[in-house]
Write a structure and sequence with these properties.
CATH class of the largest domain: Mainly Alpha
Structural class: mainly alpha
Helix content: 55-70%
Number of domains: 3
Strand content: under 5%
Oligomer: single chain
Order of helices and strands: HHHEEHHHHHHHHHHHH
CATH superfamily of the largest domain: Tetracycline Repressor, domain 2
Protein name: DNA-binding transcriptional regulator YhcF (GntR family)
CATH topology of the largest domain: Tetracycline Repressor, domain 2
Keywords: DNA-binding, Repressor, Transcription, Transcription regulation
Number of helices: 15
Largest sheet: 2 strands, antiparallel
GO molecular function: DNA-binding transcription factor activity; transcription cis-regulatory region binding
Length: 310
């Protein structure tokens, strides 16, 4: 006889407890998380957790949620030797968790569970989550080295750097929101990118401030497009439809807008197939930005030549 859906969910959570992935005191998926992750109704999720509570595997804790009870974890696999834990292992585990669940889902407890160690053992290597995130950013930005020798022209160099950043933002959707332009993280890997881009503009007749403004503007564009990656992935997960499918569903509303006659140009856009994928927007924006920087540098060069000739 086939298990009911709530029984299958309960079994899968129980397997995670028995394997040691979830330890005594760890929070198990909430009813809301179960409805999303298993695509079931709230009643089914509630029944799955009730089954585990009846078995004594989990227990409710006020202000926390449902956690693994001590009885439920007695048969769990022993923890890994905490003496084997290194800062590098910690950062790699945290990156894996953030890649899967985002920074909001990357708690110190969740990372400890991934490593099979006690949560408090992490604090021998980092002071808090903020420090861990900084080390994650530094690690990820250094995953792919900038080419050596560098491309010959300033444009090729800025383009290579921007594309590398874009790839990293795509591979780690939490990275763009975690980085700041107004309070930049002074990390070795981040400064390596900045130095490489500044060097591309050196000798072009620009002041140091202008060079830095150009570098930050390019980075700001790449990051600005990339901050949409994580929300879009979340929407796709929650709704089960792609961005294109969502736009198709909006067709009646768009036609109603066009019918008002108030927006003639926008109405023409509605009747045209326009590619609004993030990759397309990135490619278009990067090319136009580099075009603009090129015109700016050319104008500065001509001005310098005129002044020199006077």
């Amino acid at each position: 006889m086939t298990d009911a859906i709530y029984q299958r969910i309960a079994r899968e959570i129980r397997d995670r407890i028995e394997s040691g992935e979830l330890r005594p005191g760890d929070r198990v998926p909430s009813t809301r998380e179960i409805t999303v992750n298993w695509n079931v109704a709230m009643a089914t999720a509630t029944k799955a957790l009730f089954t585990l509570r009846t078995e004594g595997v989990v227990r409710p804790v006020a202000g926390v949620g449902t956690v693994v009870s001590s009885e439920g974890g007695e048969t769990a696999r022993p923890r890994a030797q905490e003496t084997d834990l290194t800062g590098e292992r910690l950062v790699l585990a945290a990156v894996r968790v953030a890649d899967a669940d985002g920074l909001d889902g990357m708690s110190m407890r969740r990372v400890a569970s991934q490593l099979g160690v006690a949560t408090m053992s992490l604090y021998r290597h980092v002071e808090n989550k903020d420090e861990l995130v900084l080390r994650m950013i530094d690690h990820v930005l250094g995953e792919e080295e900038l080419p050596d020798p560098a491309p010959r022209t300033w444009r090729e160099r800025l383009e290579v750097s921007a594309r590398l950043q874009w790839r990293l933002f795509q591979e780690h959707s939490w990275l763009a929101p975690a980085m700041s332009m107004t309070r930049p993280q002074l990390l070795p890997s981040a400064i390596t990118h900045t130095e490489w881009m500044l060097s591309a503009l050196d000798g072009r007749g620009l002041s140091l401030e202008e060079m830095m403004h150009a570098v930050v503007t390019v980075f700001g564009f790449v990051r600005g497009v990339a901050v949409n990656i994580e929300p879009e992935a979340g929407q796709r997960h929650d709704t089960g439809i792609t961005g294109d499918e969502w736009m198709t569903q909006q067709a009646p509303a768009l036609l109603d807008i066009a019918a008002t006659g108030r927006f003639p140009m926008f109405s023409q856009v509605i009747g045209t197939e326009v590619d609004m994928e993030l990759d397309t927007l990135f490619e278009f924006g990067l090319a136009r930005m580099l075009d603009g920087i090129g015109e700016w540098i050319s104008g500065r060069s001509m001005l310098t030549e005129r002044r020199t000739g006077m």
